[in-house]
Structures
1.
Amino acid sequence: MKGNGVGKEGKQIFSFTRVFLFISIIIVTGLIFISSCTKEYEFTMGQDFFDSQTRLQVIDTFSVNLSTVLLDSLKTSATKIALAGNYKDDIFGSVNVGAFFDLGYQDFEDIEDKATYDSAAFSLKYTGYSYGDTASLLKLDIHMLTEKIEPYSGYLYNTSSFDYSPEVTGTVSFYPAPESADTAVYIPVNALGEDLFNKIRENDENLSNSEQFSDYLKGFIITSGSPDNKSVIGFTADKDNLKLIIYYHVDAEEPEKKKITLSMGQENHQFNSVKFDHTNTPLNDIEAEGNVIPSSRTDNYGFLQGMVGLIPKLQFPSLNEILAIRRWKILKAELVIEPVYNSYDLFGLPQQLYIYDTDRENRVNTILLDDKGNPLTATLDYDDLNEEEVQYTYDITKFINNELSDAYFDYDHGLMPGLADDNFTSTLDRLLIECKNPPVKLRIYFLTY
Amino acid sequence: MPRLVKTSFLIILLLLSWADIFPQSTSSPYSIFGIGILESNSVGPSKGMGGTGIAFLSEMSVNSMNPASYSGLDSLLTIFEVGIFGKYSSFSTVHDNQSTVNANLKYVLMGFRVNPWLATSFGFSPVSSIGYNINATAPIEGTAQEYLETFSGTGGVNQLYVGTSLKLLKNLSLGVNAAYLFGNITRMESSAAFDYSYKDVTYVANFDFNYGLNYQLNIKKWRYNLGFIYSRSKDLRTRNTTTITTATGTETLKEYTYNYSIPQNIGVGLAVSKGFFRAGIDVERSDWKDIEFSNIYFQTRNSNRYSFGSEFPLPGDRKGTGKMIFLRFGGEYRQSYLLIDNVPIDGGTITLGTGLPLKGTLNAINIALELGRIGTTKRGLIRENYVGLHLDMSLRDLWFRKRKYD
């Protein structure tokens, strides 16, 4: 057996391991040296020596066909917002929103013999959402339902409705202050309150269990109380904030004030119904046309509005032309949407738009996703100073490349710029776009080589 | 011989892994042309002497410039050399100044004497290298905008060689290096903003032979050596692939062959030595004129290289012992084979070096500082001023003698 250079003579002889170690150290040192010294420089010298083999070009003249689709129905239940009011303008027409809800049953405590009824009111808290002109007086009425709220397989829609008594149970007129989250709006319902107070005191059998309670008190609708209203206001719809309060006092030497609170019932029994009328607006014929109408018949406009269910549809008839170019790669495809100038003074613009793909049947199909798997959005670019370049830009590179990957672009496969799901079902947020001046643009950056 | 087999095997393994991990890199905008910046094949002590070495015999170091030199190797020693080179360059045009830093493992080689008339060497070293990363503005056609396009190049040609030297007469040696040239030349244009890269990769390979001769004349205590080297013009076999990569994937656009040529090379050197002193001069000529490149920006011409250098021990107690320290100096002038707009890109360097003994008597470290200038700022061209540091580890071992003791 010979050790690695260990032995009498081995002292002078470098063992292989030592040499190997030595080399390793050199290499490691070299590596450290290299990594610590090599930097990426912004080096620009020598650019004259190159002839680029590639050309980057932009085309933004692809035609975009714009139409507006009216969706059959939108789920509006359990959105935690109760909307009521009405508004009318010459472009989007009139919209009238009513909030349906019911009250939850409770085991009422006995009321003292010496108690005297005072008053009753529904208490509403602002969500902060408003649509229209909040500087005008708003009149809201509350009616009692004559049928129970029953969701269809769990949901209720903007088109759903339940019968209610024409008789007004309570009414209120006020100047809305949607920013004041702490201020409550009260709708006095004294007669209803007194009736309930007496039934509770008498342990009326209508209040003896949840079944009989909901037969007796089927639910309510807050509706617009006047065609002159100029706004729709949002109120928080949950058990803590939407409630009926009955006030009474107990007679004694020092009168004691008391109240009974009835809170909102099941969340999915709460929904907003939307009535709209497009008569004498550019959208006059949309329903007659089968809920889809090209922009050529709507003054070149395309309409987006939540809760009503208006959504623009974009199609790209000339995109196939790019296939005629011999060697190309699409590097970037942008969809640029500019709101119609002066169409958003009163309403503001959605801060963010989403986008969905659609088909021949005008269905809102899947939402487009970005590279990270999040919904693809376009954020509003807004230049306060000169109001130019107010626009939304989507990066739809992936969509376009997927569509063209089979060397054919399907015209029926269009895109629908829309609101986020929540906003689409719980706000009247709107956007007006057009196919002329400035049109919706498809801007394609492509490389030829 | 099992130890030799094991050693060789491990060295080859090391070389292969190195070839993968350490692609040669340089950093010069001039490396975009042809097969890139040509690398000097001088080793160790020659680096301190302006790259001079055609007439030097390999003594304590392997001189792969001239394969005939291996015959000078000490019959007892196996020499193992590793070289690293680091460089700081400042590039200037008439109105701009930019700098780069880079460092590389340059060569690994080994040499030993087999018997009194036969010596051999093998190793790995670069022939040329390409390295640039240049940002240029390009128009976005159809808009008034511009974007940043990056031109980058990496790779180079390497050689794996085996050399043999035969001592024909007492004073005359002949040698040949059989080299396998291989590598890739990768040129790319890309944009980070638009996420694409257009890449052209050329894989090159071929065998090459370099011949050498060394004749020694002894007059009194002086030795005179005459060296001669020659290699034929050679076409490199190539395989090119052009691809384009975007977010949707990579597509191969074309596969073709394009001949890169390496020209005929002739060199003559003269050296004088006495004791531990030596000095030499080299003249080398490469016939690039006949070689055509399909690049409209430059023309080729025959290029010459001239160099001189000297080495002497530091006087004092250590002289003549294993702890002796050498000092070296030299200079080199290299005519470019490139003419850009008829302007040559010539370069000159001066070198200062030292050879330091390491622990024990057998190992040494050679350090050389190189100050150089390449090119000109005339006609909008680029001048490079650089400071380079060569680090050469010379391991000397009695490996193959050990058997006799066992």
2.
Amino acid sequence: MASAFAAAFEILSFGAIIVLVVLGLGIIASMMGIFNFAQGEFVLLGAYITYLAYSHGMPVWVGMAAAPFLVGALGFVLEALIIRRFYAAPIVAMLGTYALGLIIRECVRGLIGGLYLSVPEPIGGSIDIGTSHLSAWRFTIIVVTLLVMLGCYLLLARTSFGLRVRATLENPALARASGISTSLIYGATFAFGAALAGLAGALVVPVFSLFADLGIRFLIQGFVAVMVGGVGSFIGPVAGAAVIGTLSAALPWVMAPVIADILVFVLAIVFIKFRPQGLLSGKGV
Amino acid sequence: MSASKQAIRIEPGERPTLSTADCGATSTAALPTATSRRILPIVEVAALLIAAVLPLVLQDYLTVFATRVIILALFALSFDLVWGYAGIMSFGQALFFGSAGYGVALLARDLDITAIYLVLPAGMLIGLVFSLLLGGFLLLGRYPSSVIFVALGTLTGSYAADRLARGWYYLGGQNGIPSIPAMSFGSYDFDEGPVFYYLTLGILLVVYLLCRFLVRSQFGLALAGLRENEQRIAFFGYKAQHLKAIVFAVGGAIAGLAGGLYAFHEGFVWPNMLGVVISTQVVLYVLFGGSGTLIGAVIGTVIIEGVSFWLSDNYRDIWPIILGVMLLLVILFRPLGLISFVVGERERVGSFGSGRRSRHAAP
Amino acid sequence: MLGDHLKLSRRRFLSNFAFASGAIATGMGSWVIRPDWANAAEAPIKVGIATDLTGPIAYAGNADANTAKMVVKEINDAGGLLGRPLELYIEDTASNESVAVGNVRKLIQRDKVDLVLGGITSSMRNAIKDPIVARGKTLYIYPQLYEGKECTPYLFCTGPTPAQQCDEFIPWLIKNGGKRFALPSANYVWPHTLNIYARKVIEDHGGEVIFEEYYPLDQVDFSATVNRVISNKVDVVFNTVIPPGVGPFFKQLYEAGFLKNGGRLACVYYDENTLNINQANEIEGLASCLDYFKALTKDDPVSAKIQAAYEKDYPGNFLFAAGSAATGTYRGLKLWEAAVKEAGKVDRESVAAALDHAKIAEGPGGPAEMVPGKRHCKMKMYTAVAKGGVYEVVAHSNGLVDPKEC
């Protein structure tokens, strides 16, 4: 029983990490129709900023709080300069963002000297529930993810800004005709997606340690999750992330990790083949 | 729609550009009359000449490097065929490259087979089989698959193969399979050096000519139509999905051939050969050189590998960043690749029926 | 055969001729280190180091490169070898076998080194040994602890073998930890082969292997494994998971209360460099068995001298430690130096013949001797336990331990 509880907790915490990363990816894919190959590198940047703050003597949580804002700002700038040229051609977008990701990744690699660096967690130790010991930090990640998701939902469903975002999502031409500055919305969306990735990186770096290829491992899982969940809405990618994250975390408990790893992807691709629109299709929140 | 019955003169080297707007207008005014010089063959012949004399001027060490570049160029060629000519964005070519590499490595390790006339066809066969399987699954079906799906499907395939090889101890796990003996022909061993170089150059030449023949044939005509407008070619009665699957399979076979050569040249195979990094690297080569021209793939490979090698001593940290920036600039401003600096768009796309003055109206 | 010999001498001739002009003209990168008195009439002896300067194993690779620089400088300051200066060429294997092979080729074919020393993980050794020994016909010294069974001619191993690391260590673990062992491992050749040997020793001394599992190198989520360890009441975790996974793994074990319940961690490559990966409390009581620990400097003047010299020239984060192959590098270079002095020549055959039975009286942790015909090295072994983030030596071997290889 305790083992099942511990398993559930681990699965949940792992799934939460994936959800954070995928949320940004999914928002960008749904909104602008492009797959941002640099999303993994935004995660890396979030992790790097956290490390940077820590290595300069500041408490870790300061870096973690700053990361989303800094990465979001960078995302906004990149969108204005580069990304918006890609909206017409999704394939070019993939390649262009890949090149961008390459630049960011190699810059970080140069800055950290190709090493693996560790960052301690701001809330360490474990929470003892009965005989199970749960990592306090992982628990924090779950809580933060839930808060972020709730915040996103409230922002989109209840604010006028959210209304404009949804309008742009459903019918860009009409939104423009109604006086909504779609380019600004796109910029804000990209920045938001980047910020989410930055937050994910910041939260995850105590668990995974900082290294230049940190982003790559999330990228593939992220794309698969978005496609499984369905592009075009906000809840779709989240659903996809939940499914992929849960599967990835749960399967190693019942089979060899290697097989589990591959099985998740194979199942996902087969699923997408037979249901191209994903789990939850349709536009909107 | 009242189609104009006016005769359309097609000059050699020109592509008939007839749109619905042209119907009714005097078509001769819509076509430039001057014939453009064919640049591509000049580029190709120049490249061949340079490649042929290279080992004579380079030291052994650089010849070995050049051989590796030629094998990678062969690999890039396979991607150009698939993307430049059929519009399939395959982010997982390394799957075929690496599986063939592993296949021939296993042949050499477990069955002691290193004869060139066995292992290279084996590599091609492995590449062909895997690409038929993957391509069949991704491309065929009741509904045509979206480009994004194919791109992600191939990417995932490459990633999954990488993880599988990394986890399977029979394949060496993380280690891969080291110490592959040299490829042999009878009692002669193909060691690294000028001999291997000319062997790979010869293979590249043959494959290149075959590809050129393929894309200039009727099949290639259908491919050009496929690339330009898939729906329209389907309406003509061509099974677009089958065409794509065939090209994908040919691309896979070529990638497999390159993989077999690579395994014997480097002497070891390891999981990264199957993985995402190599898959995307070949995309970059072709993107940089210019897709859809065959020689562009070769040039892109040579430039990127060559500059990377030259800079790796002194600027090994900065080089990947420079590469990324150059790539980004090419994608933004010169999406047709570097070859577009010398080769015009018209020639890049290809001309069919050139040399024959046709006086019939285009359908 | 004859052709081979001719090719070799033509290459040598060209390299000698090119030395004077080449050094400046080719503008070799900053990884070439030559002594100040390099304008001697004699051509230099070239030593190549191929190690992980970047990547997850960079903490060890940089330590090895530093050690090599230190030893070569020491030799050069004493007048060189056979009156000739030593020239050091360092290439990065980047924890990436494909890059490694390319860079090793540079050492062999472009720089034409007389010796290559390097490779840390077994997969790296396997990838580069062919270009060095078979295709490159150069001597190769592998300095790191490993799984044994490497009997390639002209490949000499100066790091500990399973026999040296397990024969006395595992009985100690059973006595000071418990009988129930778990073998969580990285999925590549070193853990696979080491575990076979370790299992035998464990079972011979009354222990029991509860489970043996293999994970991808980049796995960082070990919750299933940790759960298995706790629920099966494992006493000793004989770990062969390597970076980047080992940090998260130990942390997750700690968080699950493994150490609190009296469990013992054991990890044969864990040294002063890797101590920094985890917080001290997460690895309290971790036991390791290596050929050298910094704690030895209290009692052994030779070790103290070497450690002090290293720390003076290379203060910083890359420590002189045994699990990072730094001691193996030192040992390997000194043994090679002795062999070259004995042979009087630098060609591979003569040096290999001399290296076969080379001995050094002074090395980190004690003297070292090559076992004739086996290409492996006898050395003293020490068991140490991590207390408060620092190692304390708790046991040592009686004299030099036989590697029992080949």
